[in-house]
Queue: 2 jobs
Job 1
Amino acid sequence: MTSIVEQNLPSSLLRALGAYTQTCAHIELHTAVLILEIEKYHRVAPFTKDVSFPVLRKLTAGNLLKRLKRTLESCQPTPKHRFDELVGRLEEGKDGRDIAVHGAFYFDQAKQSFRVNFFKKVGDLLVEEQTEIDSALVVLHQVEADSIYVEILELIDLVRSGAA
């Protein structure tokens, strides 16, 4: 049985979105692992209630990024430029990840194109937006997400080895 969404969107777009959103989920999972590894290595006050894996995993992506920044500021792992670059890349890609996970993708008959409907926070307001999308654009985001994911895994290994 195919779902209504599968009937209305090409399999290449759905496949690309699935791979991308799963990569984003793994980025968040391993960002939490990275935070714990840095704090463990730098002996941050013995794992207090806010330094636990379940607590980190329940944070929103934005709050997880804030927590990573706080951890990096207090622990100062090296090489600093790699951690700073990671934070910048995570910040830069946050909106795209949010759109992929929370946006509603559809075929716009009038414009004869695939589009995504989503809400964007502007100040205190949520503003509805729509933009054109295709598999190639999702694949571009996937390439960047894969690169971020690899960097996080490498940084975890660096911290665990004692080199950070």
Job 2
Amino acid sequence: MRSLSLARLTITLCMGLSAVLLILFSIFSDPSGRLTPDSAQYLSLADNILAGNGFTVPDDGRVIAEHEPFAIWPVGYPSAIAAVAWVFDLPVFAASKLLNIMLMLSTMLLISAGFGRGGFALSLVVLFGAYLEVFSFTWSEAPFLFLFVLAALITGKLLEHPRDTLDWRVVCLGVVVFCLFLFRYVGAPAVLMPAAVAVIDLYAGRRRRGLLALIVTGAVTGLILAYLLNNQSLTGHMTGIERVVAPESHTELLRQLSIAMIREVILPVAEWEPRDRLHLIWAGFQAVAGLVVVVWLVVCLRRDGSGKAFDPLTRTLLLTGSGYLILIVAIRWTAAFDGFGFRRFAPGSLLVFLGLFRGLMERVTAGAPAVEGFLTAIASASLVATAFSVFGQPLVLADAHDDRVNHYAPLSEGSILIFAGLHAPYLRSDLHIAAPNPFSSTGLPEDSESWQDFINSLDSSLPIFLDMTGIPASNDGHHPSVHSAIEGFEGNGIIQLR
């Protein structure tokens, strides 16, 4: 038994280190370094924190240029990046990648150590394609995944061991729940986790722990409200910006959701493309293997597992994961932001998968070896698929990064940059990044902000530059005068307008 546990540990460790290597290859083979526009904003705030500017970033340079509160996203993830950058004396970009790798390994370690029998195998779920993709990008979903698993684990353990004491784990749960909110606003409903512990304990007569959980719930709720009300007073909106109503029809949203859910189930590839033969092969393998294992386990479950109930941790994983997925679908159904996909689903789907596989291990006598073998095979397939996609690709990040640094180096400190490229916010976190407003009450480009009105609105005391690498497409909703004004400029450089 001891040698078997050591073998499982060795396999898990080797696969985890392989995932780290693949993540590094995917980062260095991507010219953008696995960044998206919100990634650049996180890095910008992290750099401003290190510069002593607090939780503020330069505004868009209108009228009188100054710093503004960072409120569209919570400050937790940029703060964590800044802390890693400070401790290891790294640029914020490198710090974000190191942080995410540490979070991935910590999530695997947490599952291995905290989930009991089968924990090593269950930790391999983290290596499925969708989650590898999340940890390779500078996205707040990375720490959110770790914290969500931790919160579910603490809640499950509290419910599994009912005792009427002032349990310190209740306070830990409150801290983790508040951190979930600090990393993503959608983490606010996680306050229902200590609330559930309070209700169950008080109903069962465990007054001391029940009252402590109730106090923790109230304290975390108060802190969340205080944070949102502070945003309201600083920006006029609780989450820093007016949220736009989803423009899609219910039919279109349902179509998008259906496709996204199918892709979420087809592991190990995060975003598979039917025209890509390799991805199609892996998706087909996953679908067939998954169907065979599920059918076999259902047969076993009907034979010898029907009288067993899931333990509190498994129920917590399934309920919280499903609740998150329902919540994120409901939010996207009413508000416009990124479409349905593995990034938005990842925290919920991870908990659901962990709950399902752990439940099968519990309820089916012969289920544990089959589930362990299945998870090992799928995680291995995920690593192989990722390796095929990144190995052999040129490592272009270093040269691309040097080019971008040289691109923005000539700009004077604190100047205004129009149509900045993706990387400007963190490479030059002192710049005021501006663009004409493409939105209007009528939705017509002719009624949006004109080029001259935009230029007149900028701080007249600062130099103004135009970044040709960030020029928008001609059909992006900007006023016709905007495109007329920039048509006369050529190249991909920086042009000084004033």
